[in-house]
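User: Before I run my own analysis I want an independent prediction to cross-check against. Here's the chain; please return only the structure tokens and, at the end, one sentence I can use as a sanity check.
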Amino acid sequence: MNQIKKCLIIDGNNLLYRSYHASRHLPWENEFKAIFIFLRIIISLLKENDYQKLLVVFDSAKINFRHHILPEYKIHRLAAPPQFLQQMDCLQEIFSQSNLPLAKLTNFEADDLIASFVSQNGKLHPHWKLDIFSQDKDLMQLLSPQVSIYRYDSKREIASFTYPEFCQEYKFAPSSYVDYLCLLGDKSDNIPGVNGIGIKSAQRLIQKFGTVEMLYQNIYQLLVKTQNLLVGSKQLVYQNKQLITLRKDLTLPINWEECDFSWEKWKRNQKLIEFCQEHQFKSILKSLS
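Assistant: Structure tokens:
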């Protein structure tokens, strides 16, 4: 019987953004406080789990192909502060110097790289368990018996969210989560939903039909009021599917073999240790020792 091995994929933008906002509450002054929190979090994951593969993924830029579909996509997001961008550059440099695998790709978001990496390598390596660390709900469409998501729960503790847990909560498969969001929209990304369709209605429709394509093919089965809502928003719903569906066909800038990882080796990396010493990250140095 093949032993299950584990790979961790980290949504770098998502985690650093949350680390940056959390860092403002730290009582001590340090220009790299967000990096401090970022490193604390991933070190806790790496110490507690035996990962043989690791990849940290970043967005390439603010503008990507989804803006060509919907110019207002994520328009409400505030511009990243210079301090955040400075720490982003610094963090990526630390990872490069300490031989920690990272990837980004022009015109695509980190989510698309994660989806392509998980989809392509999951098929090639079925005996591996793939863990994603991110709070981004769009990534829930990737959940499977092989893929879990680590995120902060309601108690602000890191916990895994699994395929069975998703199915129990939503009563449909994660592959239909895109279709569910197509009806609801996504306020955080400025993607409008179907007026008059709420959470419970969207959930019932996807439980019954599975996809928006099947929903529209069988729209005559619905009440006239619901039919009218959906017919009037058909173009919007299909546009949403283009926006929300993550790309799984990208040619990735990093391959599976380049993602080899050893916690025992990385924690002794001299570049990582020197950075932590220079910026007085004493608790991290203790974790690494």
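Sanity check: The longest helix spans residues 33-48.
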